[in-house]
Amino acid sequence: MDTECASHHEISSSTEKANLVEVESVVQSWMVDYFFATLCRHFKARSGPEFHKALKMFEALGDELESCSHRSGHPSQRTVCCLLARVIDGEQLDVHYDRVTQITPLMSALAIWESLKEVSDTDLHAKIKTLLIVQSVAVCVKKGNSKLAKETLQWLEKETEIPEKLHGKLTAIVSKKDAYDPLLMNLTFNQLLENIDMFLHAFNLESSSVFLLEAASKVVEARHERSEKTLSEQDQSERVPSSPESIITEENEAQVDQLVLNMRPKRKLLSKQTHDPWKPETAKKERATGKRTSVCKLSRRSSSPSELQNCDVSETSKARRKWTVIEDRKLKAGVKKHGEGNWRMILDDFEFGNRTGVNLKDRWRTLKNKGEDF
After folding, report:
1. How far is Cα 351 from Cα 327, in angstroms, rounded to an integer?
2. What's the pLDDT tens digit per position in 229-276?
3. CB 193 within 8 A of CB 83
4. At what angle do helices 20-44 and 211-239 cross, to 10 degrees?
5. CA torsion sign, 116 to 103 to 190 to 56?
């Protein structure tokens, strides 16, 4: 026990001496790994609602996830998440990730999949590409949208290479509006999902870390062991009177339990509480309101619940309107609470109408240039 206490004290001392920025970067990379693994797990389980919840947490970590990556040489986990979101939305034609509404989720996924060519097995990459091409057309045909199916095939002809034989079959399918063609029966949407599962397995083996999951598992195991031990001791105490020796043993076990508790991460490191005396509660919006978007969004463009959108597509511009005094006060309160640059958190905490993270950033710069009193 003395050795463990000494080790715990040594870790605490080294953490205090370490560069806080570097420490936070490592912690953030663990969090990115954890939520990426969670997204992959929900994708494999075909659990759309849970995938969306994890996606929001992944997005909340920030727009510059590459900056905290400790695995140089691998594509961004963000890029893979963009692919997963589009594929999990693949059969929803009312969901859009691009400004051009005719581009369906699977059409958008195709371009992302091409960017992952170097990190995927050659045969697997070719198979998934074929499935994406076929299902891009198949979804439209099955939904009865023959016009969109024709436009999709024309788009594919321009944007990617389609084998001549496959192109001929797809042309016939679109022309006949045949949703039960043997080609569509053999290259199904479920096969696309299963093949992407195979890619995720290989990708995670090579580039992912599950440190937080492993650490949390040990904490949970320790809790269960303590619970079982407590129940066992209570059962024994009901049958056997306590002796001086048993009292000493209980004191030693209590010290061990306290050591385990001390080794857990301190909750206030992840707390969102603040002791800021300036809290304009009337300016805060309820948590049930709709999702806000930031500069480099990880959300789709449809009115449905948000998923991933390609990060190099900028946000649709909105009509400008003058900033009010009340909005300026909210912005100042948000920066004071969450810090400059955390525009998404401020948008989640305060009501700004249809303003975006870019709007908040520009207004904050204007206020600073004016020499406003903060």
Report:
1. 8
2. 777 766 666 655 555 554 445 555 444 444 444 444 443 333 344 444
3. no
4. 80
5. positive
What's this model's pTM, rounded to 2 decimal places?
A: 0.57
Structural contact between residues 84 and 315, judged by C-beta atoms closer than 8 angstroms: no
CA 341, CA 63: separation in Å to the nearest integer? 11
Q: Is 242 helix (H, G, I), strand (E, B) or coil?
A: coil
The secondary structure of 113-141 as a DSSP string is HHHTGGGS-HHHHHHHHHHHHHHHHHHHH
Tokens linked to 3: 């050795």
Q: How many CB atoms lie within 10 A of CB 49?
A: 9
For residue 363, give the amino acid letter.
Answer: R
CA angle 250, 252, 254 (to 5 degrees): 70
The values of phi and psi at residue 350, to 5°, are: -130, 150
Burial label for 173, CB within 10 Å (0-12, 13-18, 19+), is buried
- Measured between alpha carbons, how far is 199 from 134 in angstroms, rounded to an integer? 19
Query: Reduced to 3 states, what is the DSSP secondary structure of residue 90?
Result: coil
Residue pLDDT, tens place only, 317-343: 344 678 898 899 899 998 988 888 888
- CB neighbour list of residue 66: distance below 8 Å, 6 or more residues apart: 76, 78
Residue that is written with structure tokens 């990190």 in the block: 119
Those residues with Cβ within 8 angstroms of residue 142's Cβ, 6 or more apart along the chain or in another chain: 179, 184
Find residue 284's DSSP bridge partners. 350
Q: Own/partner pairs for 207-215, CB < 8 Å, 24+ apart?
A: 207/71, 207/74, 207/77, 208/33, 208/36, 208/37, 208/77, 209/29, 209/30, 209/33, 210/33, 210/34, 210/37, 211/30, 211/33, 212/30, 212/31, 212/33, 212/34, 213/34, 213/37
Whole-number Cα distances in Å, 297 to 28, 120, 307, 358, 364: 19, 26, 10, 11, 20
Q: How big is the chain by its Cα radius of gyration, in Å?
A: 27
Q: At a CB cut-off of 8 Å and minimum separation 6, what does 197 contact?
A: 43, 44
What is the distance between the alpha carbons of residues 165 and 149, in angstroms, rounded to a whole number? 18
Dig out the tokens for 332 from the structure.
Answer: 């100042």
